[in-house]
Amino acid sequence: MRWFKRNQSPQQPRVLVVGLDCLAPRLVARFSDVMPNLSALQGQGAFGLLESVIPPITVPAWACMTTGKRPGTLGIYGFRNRVDHSYDKLSIVTSRQVREKAIWDYVGDAGRESIIVGVPPGFPPKPLKGHAISCFLTPDAQADFTYPQHLKAELQTLVGEYQFDVRNFRTENKQWLLDQIFQLTEQRFRVANHLLTTKPWDFFMFVDMGADRLHHGFWRYCDPRHIHHQAKNPFKNAFRDYYAFLDQQLGRLLENVPDDVFVLVVSDHGAKRMDGGICINEWLMQQGYLKLKVPPQSVRAVDPSQVDWAHTTAWGEGGYYSRIFLNAAGREPQGTVAPSDYEGLRDELVKKLEALGDEQGRPIGTRVYRPEDLYARQRGIAPDLIALFGDLHWRAVGTVGWNTVWVHENDTGPDDANHAQHGVFAAHNVPGFKGQQTDLNLVQITPTVLQLLGLSLPDDLEAESML
Asked: Under CATH, what is the fold of the domain 15-274+419-452?
């Protein structure tokens, strides 16, 4: 197959990073027969599993990848984070919360240009030397989502209304969802091709969310091991068809890439089937750690005003993993856990949660972490514990009113998949860097890219280059 345009003039090194959110290594291997372009990249260059951070969540994973810093240093532990130690203040991550320098900042400091498309958390877009389009966290196309601002009109001429994400992807209207996912990916690659060929750049990175939305929406249809799988269904080939389409888009992009460009293909985490949900706050109530003033009569979120804080020692947040907070005396407004009891309570929760099995008591492989064991630094309000239920085959359900610890439906809408700890990595055109690689971590992407660009590595990066 024909790739890469012949570069007619020598210039400084350039790097292209193709980010495919949630692209799953096992599915790439499974569908290699319809993915000739990615397979060739792997066969001709370096490849391997790319370990995500803990937690393996879109935000903060991309932020860690592009800064070379871990979640604790960034102070970003999920999509929403506690603003302070009060009980009711949570904020959705924006680009302003990333205070560490990103790859494109170092590139700009060197007087060189970057193009950044859809890299979370990218809203609002920050000024840089080059061009930027914000990410899936953008509220809508009416917002100022480009830098410089006049790029917005150029995009509208190119594609009409810019599509940041598949809105309401947790839906039962599966044909609509599938159509939207294909449209999202086609548009993202069309925009990338346009910018790649019309703007100057030394570093180019874009992220497509299509695979993530596909996995969450269609895993049950394509995996016979999924608890809700039906052998006869109209979407049994959805994964294969999309992965083939994605590879076609990648091939067309590579045809526009000069042959002296270093190319990396990465995903921020992988994906796996979801077997069920652990109702973390139901469990905490049953165990006597969390008390509500009035028992819930229906499924609902935990309202901090309805918690009996004087008799509560811990509560949890739901999601693909769980953040558990202790009601620490002297820290939370109505804290009950004395400093002398803090570590003992954490040890107790770790032991109980890791021993918690499924409805039949069978082990599911839950792992519970103390943040200081994961992060050298902890900025912002870190959780007291981080729980990955069932080795990420189970999600955390934060709502109450279920009257059970185990559920097999999602409290935020239909969702078939959870995130996996390892994503995809491939590198092409990097001399001496070939074959299968091991022990790769996404925090290494920043130093690796900087080294490929010929830039010096800052002393405060939290990982070494892969090279």
From this structure: Alkaline Phosphatase, subunit A (3.40.720)
